[in-house]
Write a structure and sequence with these properties.
There is one protein chain. This protein is of the alpha+beta class. The chain has one domain (37-194). It contains 6 helices and 5 strands. It has helices at 2-9, 34-62, 66-91, 103-113, 119-132, 161-194; strands at residues 12-16, 22-26, 137-139, 147-152, 155-160. The protein has a 3-stranded antiparallel sheet. Strands 1-2 form a two-stranded antiparallel sheet. Helix 3 packs across helix 4 and helix 3 (66-91) packs parallel to helix 6. The chain starts with a helix and ends with a helix.
Length: 195
């Protein structure tokens, strides 16, 4: 449903493919390709969010293992990085050569360019990067209270299902803010073309 909303707003063509889903072809009337890359990143972030929701609401419900929890952490990181990439493409739409490829450099640049209300999301992205490097051990695997336990800088880190859903809520909020920014920018661009 959300992709159809994007199709209307961003002048996308949606084609139904095999029985598995549909494809999106981007058709833009303008000659510069700055906005499509930003929109593609946002669509990719939405796709990753859908995968994350499947892991949290379906896979985790039936399979409470270390691998599922780690997969959820990886998906959280993927959504965060696609949101960061989308913001970078929005902020540097005039010169994409300034966009670094390293995720932590992107985050540090955005911390200086974005408003203060984005700092908690950038801190979460940095935290996700640290969490992915930890060698976790599973406790209560295959049970309701499954959690990951690891050590970072001498501190014990525990990630359970409740903590994953807290991360999920923050990531979802971040994605919604990024989406609002991109949609508003696109509306302004269309309005400027009309005037």
């Amino acid at each position: 449903m959300l992709l159809f909303f994007f199709a209307i707003i961003f002048n996308l063509e949606v084609n139904f493919g095999h029985a598995t889903g549909f494809y999106i072809n981007i058709k833009l009337n303008n000659k510069n390709n700055k906005k499509p890359k930003m929109i593609e990143s946002l669509i990719q972030a939405k796709r990753e969010m859908h995968r994350l929701e499947h892991v949290l609401y379906v896979s985790l419900k039936y399979t409470r293992t270390k691998e599922i929890l780690l997969n959820a952490l990886r998906q959280l990181d993927q959504v965060l990085m696609w949101c960061v990439t989308t913001l970078m493409k929005y902020k540097f739409s005039s010169n994409e050569k300034e966009i670094p490829t390293q995720p932590l450099k992107k985050i540090s640049i955005l911390e200086t360019k974005c408003e203060q209300d984005f700092t908690k999301y950038f801190q979460l992205a940095r935290e996700m990067r640290k969490l992915l490097r930890i060698d976790f051990k599973a406790e209560n695997e295959f049970r309701k209270n499954v959690k990951l336990v690891g050590m970072v800088d001498g501190k014990l880190i525990e990630i359970d299902i409740k903590k994953l859903f807290e991360y999920y809520d923050l990531v979802k909020e971040f994605l919604e803010k990024v989406e609002d920014i991109i949609i508003e920018a696109h509306r302004k661009q269309k309005q400027n073309k009309r005037d």
